[in-house]
Amino acid sequence: MSEPKAPTPTPAGDTYKGWLFKWTNYIKGYQRRWFVLSNGLLSYYRTQAEMGHTCRGTINLATANIAVEDSCNFVISNGGAQTYHLKASSEVERQRWITALELAKAKAVRNQAESDDSGDECPTSPPTSGQGGGARNSNSEVQSTLRTLGSKVEDLSTCNDLIAKHGSALQRSLSELEGVRLGGDTDGKIRQVTERATLFRITSNAMINACRDFLALAQAHSKRWQKALHSERDQRIRLEETLEQLAKQHNHLERAFRGATVLPLSQSNPALNSKSSGSAKGDASDEDDENEFFDAMEDPAGFITVPADPKYHRRSGSNISGLSAETGIDDQSLCDEQSLGSNPESPQSLEVEPVRKRRTKIPDKPNYSLNLWSIMKNCIGKELSKIPMPVNFNEPISMLQRLSEDLEYYELLDKAAKCQSSLEQLCYVAAFTVSSYSTTVHRTGKPFNPLLGETYELDRLRESGYRSLCEQVSHHPPAAAHHAISERGWTLRQEISLASKFRGKYLSIMPLGSIQCMFEKSNNHYSWKKVTTTVHNIIVGKLWIDQSGEIDVVNHRTGDCCHLKFAPYSYFSRDVARKVTGVVTDKEGKAHYVLSGTWDEKMEFSRVMQSNKGENGTEGKQKTVYQTLKAKELWKKNPLPEGAETMYYFSSLALTLNESEEGVAPTDSRRRPDQQLMEAGRWEEANAEKQRLEEKQRSVRREREREAQRAANLPEEGAEGVEVAEDGVHQDNYEAMWFERTEDAVTGESMHVYKGGYWEAKDHGNWGMCPDIY
After folding, report:
1. Where are the domains of the chain?
2. How far is CA 350 from CA 6, 230, 300, 505, in A?
């Protein structure tokens, strides 16, 4: 053992160093450690080289007790939270350490009392010139705390190993004791059990003390860390706001530069130039009042929007003529734009008294904990396709009802049917496309998979002017057909099947198939597809949903197109979350409208007055600069009902989807027993009923496959019912009740189209042809 550097104890303000033996655990015993006494703190390291980076433990002498055990051993205890059993190489060395420790403790207690008195007398104030040193001290304190916590975790790990070791030994001794007969060796076995029980008790107490020590440290520093975290968060917010202001200033300067060089629109109108030169002061004030500047928007679609030249905002006769000559937009189109935002004849402004009062509440979602073992024990020995998933992952509506929820904002199609311009109509159809995703932002529950032949009707003819019908037309692969028709001149149809990929942390759901919308008055025929839905934090964390991808809404009659882009969420992006951007172009590729917003809140559109190719973007792509008028609101999400968080975050429409109605088909989703039981909160019964329905469906499918096999062995004219996909995958040998597969004459796509007969059957109550699926 080497001697300390100082031959005699030094004052506590100075550093005292030396080697001591420290008790570690019952396996390793005493271990040689390098101790450093400085500023009232006793720290130790494994070697002298560790002093610069790794401290194994620190004890504050201001609250410590120092006790001498024998000639070489002494103990330093910090109220039970920390205890160091130390041993010096000689009695002289031990006395030097005891003296140094006592002096350091006295000075530490005195300094602490003085610090408390000064803290009570003087109010705290933010540091001025000494901020740098304060930051360094704070960082050093955090590092010291982290090292101490790391040491405690290491102690916990050691205690855990010891408890496991001594517990096993004690168990073995107890087992041996049971087999020992009363005799001479009984005393020895009992003594052995007693010794091992004593060791187990000591290690258990050490574990308890270590846990208490760690908990005390964590509680002592948690408030300080929370405060530091909030401070860092506020600082980050201020930094983001500063960056946003800088970006706005940069965009303003960029617009001013382009207005002077790239966009010399004022030079093309001599009448406006002469007016400007004649009364410069008056026009300057007019520009302040009329030309509303907006933040330049650089979005993933690869374009930038800037406010249009002030002359486009004026409604004088000379300006209108100049505008028509330059942009080719007629007066009627301009008038239509002013009326788009508030159409007095739009269905939204008409107050129609509903013929039936719909429900506004369903039973609250039970707070059932999911027992994974209760699921897994029922899956042993079963095929993966036959494992029943519990309703804990579901919401009490089916996929057919989810498709019907696309009509939540049917008013957009009502407005589109009234538009005189096909380009304006395309804006509303695009907004309707985006609005169908607004109900998914909080809906992490999985809808029930429809049974083959299951249907769902949504009859809102007297209330909202439309009626809708869905049917599950295939089970392998699963596919649903949807048809909706409105008295206000539009028809919507779609056939959707789902493909999913599990990628570890998230689940990607890719809807396959297309959606079509036809307008009776204009004969415009639109089609589009859905984007990818991603469910994040499948394994660990809170589930959240994102929509990403691109959509082309195409008018097949005129060739107009709206290209929408759903930006995926990125933690590093300064754009708003769930952002959607789009551009409406004619068949020549000329832009007429720019759309922007979010898929969970609202969409706006702006008329494009002129477009120019701007500078290259960040990725080397040339961005288009659109001069636009002031944005107007196309669509805004309706607020959720009160208490929606306890009702699966259902919208007002979704709350009514499972409400019982008279006269619906026996295959309607409202009649599905497991779904009704789940909504009522009886989940255990719902799980049993769901398993029964799935097994019944499998047996019906096996019988249908046997019939198809028998039909395949007949002559060629008798095998019409066997259906095989082009890729060779066997499909359900099932003929839909209300839909038939046809090829669309406009788009050329093959899809299930409503063939009629359902509403007539409902009027007559003739459901005899419906299968028994429940």
Report:
1. 15-112, 144-247, 374-613+623-636+643-697
2. 94, 49, 38, 47
